[in-house]
Amino acid sequence: MKVVILGGGESGVGAALLAKHKGMEVFLSDKGSLSDKYKQILVENAIPYEEGQHTESLVLEADEVIKSPGIPDKAPLIQALVQKGITIISEIEFASRYTKAKLIAITGSNGKTTTTLLTYHLLKSAGLKVGLAGNIGESFAKQVIADTFDYYVLEISSFQLDNSYEFHPHIAILLNITPDHLDRYEYTFQKYIDSKFRIARKLAKEDYFIYYKENPPIEKELAVRNIPAMLLPVSLESEVQTGAYLSNDTLVIRTGSPIRIALDELPVQGKHNAINSMAAILTCRILDIEEVAIKAGLKTFQNAPHRLEKAGEINGVTFINDSKATNVDSVFYALESMKQPVVLIAGGIDKGNDYTQIEELVNQKVKALVCLGKDNSKLLAFFRGKVPIIQETAYIREAVQMGLQLAKPGEVVLLSPACASFDLFKNYEDRGTQFKQAVSDLKNLKLQD
């Protein structure tokens, strides 16, 4: 069996290691540059590789190709593989063939990371042998080599699902579907919806499907799809007999013995995080974790960096890093969770954003807008006349200084960009890290004054 890995990042190198462990002939090809760390791993394990190019003649010799999620299907090399009839799969699909563990898979346009981390934390703190993988942490394939866990909690993107066929979670969670990444789906929302629903394609009657009840695309699809698993809706608006719902600022979890958890007991705030928390807690109840263990786990959870992360306080003004908010829907959730007046820092590379989604919330909560980007024309055109104060900059430090000048004690400066970061930063992590550093530096400067 000859396997070619396309892409030499965490998932690709992990897949190469698993394939080698299973006795396959392996070749890894990356069109970009491999990091020294991954090159060393490949050399130490005698796995041949190339970087800076894809040698088509070598790639087309494969019996099967494991493709990085970042490579689009329309790429000429992928089209050549399809024409030759060579199977193309994701690392998630490949790794799932070789594990005895039960899989908990989480997808959605927003909230995946928070829900995945919270679910993992609750299960681990309750004493289960559980791994964390997918679109987060260490490669799933690499972990499957030893396969020491009883469960894996997997954050799954639509790109990973696109090349998954037999992938079979025991618990599948679909948080929401809103327009995103449409450039990869021929700007057809239904194709993106279909991609997300691939998480449920192999569910059987002994499995579970947790979903957000009030998301229109999910509601519409469930009306025409036959999913044999037990359906467990999560609702913010209505009582459900089996599943979870919000009632008078209390989460009610109904599977097994009902439990109730007050919103203020949750480690993450905002209605969107009530959805995420209900999905995670439902998962715990399916796996027979007791209420006392769940509540103990909630008290010790810390969310991922760059997602509504407190970055510091200066002169009574709170700075919040939400750099991971790279689409308008994420900014909606961030603003919805704010209780104080907000100075919003937004901007970057626009992905076809529709700012009408947040217009009402901006009107209610945003006192000033700082546009951070090389080209702020779309933000300016939409919000001019709708936000009392609008300023522009291409420098993160200046954006932080503007935020402090515009905010009063007790108010919030929120970095929630709604855009990709590549005009000024390496990625959203770099943007968030630079924001936190700028806040820290400005705080130290004020202390010296």
UniProtKB/TrEMBL annotation:
Pfam families: Mur_ligase_C, Mur_ligase_M, MurD_N. GO terms for molecular function: ATP binding; UDP-N-acetylmuramoylalanine-D-glutamate ligase activity. Residues 306-419 form the Mur ligase C-terminal domain. It catalyses: UDP-N-acetyl-alpha-D-muramoyl-L-alanine + D-glutamate + ATP = UDP-N-acetyl-alpha-D-muramoyl-L-alanyl-D-glutamate + ADP + phosphate + H(+). ATP binds at G108, S109, N110, G111, K112, T113, T114. One of its GO terms (cellular component) is cytoplasm. Its main location: cytoplasm. Residues 106-283 form the Mur ligase central domain. GO terms for biological process: cell division; cell wall organization; peptidoglycan biosynthetic process; regulation of cell shape. SUPFAM superfamilies: MurCD N-terminal domain, MurD-like peptide ligases, catalytic domain, MurD-like peptide ligases, peptide-binding domain. Its EC number is 6.3.2.9. Pathway: Cell wall biogenesis; peptidoglycan biosynthesis. It is an enzyme of class 6 (ligase). Keywords: ATP-binding, Cell cycle, Cell division, Cell shape, Cell wall biogenesis/degradation, Cytoplasm, Ligase, Nucleotide-binding, Peptidoglycan synthesis. It is found in: Cytoplasm. The keyword Cell cycle applies. Belongs to the MurCDEF family. Cell wall formation. Catalyzes the addition of glutamate to the nucleotide precursor UDP-N-acetylmuramoyl-L-alanine (UMA). HAMAP family: MurD. This is UDP-N-acetylmuramoylalanine--D-glutamate ligase. It comes from Rhodocytophaga rosea. The gene is murD.
